[in-house]
Amino acid sequence: MMDRRTFTLTLGAAVASAVLAPVARAAAPKVRNVVLVHGAYADGSSWSEVIPLLQAAGMNVTAVQNPLTSLADDVAATRRALALQDGPVVLVGHSYAGMVISEAGVDPKVAALVYVAARAPDAGEDYPALTRTFPTAPASAGLTHAGGFAQLSEQAFLRDFANGVDPVRARALYAVQGPISDTLFDSRTTQAAWRNKPSFYAVSRNDRTTNPDLERFLARRMKATTIELDSGHLSLVTHPREIAGLILRAANGGAP
Predict the structure, then answer these.
(1) DSSP-assigned states of every residue in 41-60
(2) Check: CATH 3.40.50.1820 for 29-251?
(3) What are φ and ψ of residue 216, in 5° steps?
(4) d(CA 157, CA 140)
(5) Which DSSP symbol is given to 72?
(6) For 145-199, what is each residue's pLDDT tens digit?
(7) Residues 211, 220: Cα–Cα separation, whole Å
(8) Do 166 and 136 contact (CB within 8 A), yes or no?
(9) Could you give the C-alpha distances from 91 to 15, 214, 235, in angstroms and in order?
């Protein structure tokens, strides 16, 4: 005869088994390594909501810390991270980092590219000129310059860069904002890895830093597998499950 303690333990084990079963049945990602590259006005902590989700799915995650001093310096930082990986990699870039992954993504280890509200210039393309063919997003009006570097004012950061983010979290992100070189956005890529690698794109419908129609244009041009989110520029903070899901889709060769 089962006593109360035995029944409780048995019931607890059954519930735990039911909860964990979907995870146990899920196929392991075909690609186990992911390298995350942050954009301008940010640092690697901007991925902190996405990273645990990827790790729980069995991914080996590395977040690059860009110096934001030049495109060449940021590409070099990403290449160092790629060199440390033990196999194929999904390379992910947010915002400006789309330029970085477009350049560094030609690395043979890179199996797929994921762009999150990101720039995706063609090789040698004048990206600032391309952006001027779309209405200007509000955030750029809040840039302040000092000593050869630029950053967003607190008002512009909270209103235009981190719109939709919990205010407490947004202020923490403002505190770790990475100042960028005044010449950072003048650089041109020499490679367009998206022309030869499977590419994925997350459009932010409420973006006030990059025009959402520009994002849609870039996604169409690269023939990317695309999702759209009701998010501001920081969808990696406000919609981490959707962003992690897109990365895992890339890791599984495009399978949902």
Answers:
(1) T--GGGGTTHHHHHHHTT-E
(2) yes
(3) -65, -40
(4) 10
(5) H
(6) 999 999 999 999 999 999 999 999 999 999 999 999 999 999 999 999 999 999 9
(7) 15
(8) no
(9) 37, 21, 17
